[in-house]
Write a structure and sequence with these properties.
The chain is α+β, with helices and mostly antiparallel strands. It contains 4 helices and 7 strands. The protein is globular. It starts with 5 loop residues before the first strand and ends in a 10-residue tail after the last strand.
Length: about 180
C-alpha cells in the first residue's frame, strides 16, 4: 500500500523578514469576509485538484478543508486571507491562530494554477505568517506532501525548518 511522504515546515515568527515581498500584477491581499466562504473554498479546491502530486490524498484533505472553511469562518481562532485580481479571488490561506494546533496554515498557500509563479504565493505566505505573528504566535507550521511544488519552492522561504512527519495531523477544531 502506498503511503505518502508528509513534510512539516515551521517558522520562527520573530525571524520573519520585516520587509514584505513585492506583490506584482495589481493583486491585493486582504482578510476574507464570511459571505465569501463558498468562493474561498472553490479556490482552495481548484488549487488542490490542479496539483496532480496530491493524488488521492487530496480527497481527504479537501473534505477537511471544506469543513474548516465553511464552518470555521467567523470562529474566534480562524482567519482566511485571500488574494484578489480585480474582483476575482485567485488565492487563499486558511489559518488557525491557536498556538497548540498541530499546524496553523490549515489549507496551506493555495493559488489557482493560472496565477502561479507571479509572486502571489510568496506574498500570501508572508502575510499569513505576519498575521499569525501579530496574533501573538511565536511559531507557525504547515504540513504538505513531499512531492508538491510548494514543498520545494514556496515553503522553504523565510528561513523555514523542514521535518518529515508520519501523517497529516488531524485538527481537533474540525474533527
Amino acid at each position: 500500500m502506498y503511503k505518502p511522504d508528509w513534510i512539516r515546515f515551521s517558522w520562527e515568527l520573530k525571524s520573519l523578514p520585516a520587509k514584505e515581498p513585492k506583490l506584482n500584477g495589481g493583486f491585493v491581499i486582504r482578510k476574507a469576509e464570511e459571505d465569501e466562504r463558498e468562493e474561498v473554498y472553490n479556490v482552495v479546491e481548484r488549487s488542490y485538484l490542479a496539483e496532480l502530486a496530491w493524488g488521492i490524498a487530496s480527497l481527504e484533505r479537501l473534505a477537511e478543508l471544506k469543513e474548516a472553511i465553511l464552518k470555521g469562518m467567523g470562529e474566534k481562532d480562524f482567519r482566511v486571507l485571500i488574494v484578489e485580481d480585480g474582483k476575482r479571488i485567485i488565492g487563499a490561506s486558511a489559518l488557525l491562530t491557536d498556538p497548540t494546533a498541530p499546524r496553523q496554515l490549515v489549507s496551506g498557500i493555495c493559488v489557482m494554477e493560472e496565477y502561479r509563479c507571479r509572486g502571489a504565493g510568496t506574498a500570501l505566505l508572508w502575510q499569513s505568517l505576519k498575521l499569525l505573528a501579530d496574533e501573538g504566535l511565536d511559531t507557525a507550521s504547515v504540513v504538505t506532501r513531499s512531492n508538491v511544488p510548494a514543498c520545494k519552492f514556496l515553503y522553504t522561504k523565510f528561513t523555514s525548518r523542514r521535518e518529515r512527519v508520519e501523517e497529516m495531523p488531524v485538527l481537533k477544531q474540525f474533527a
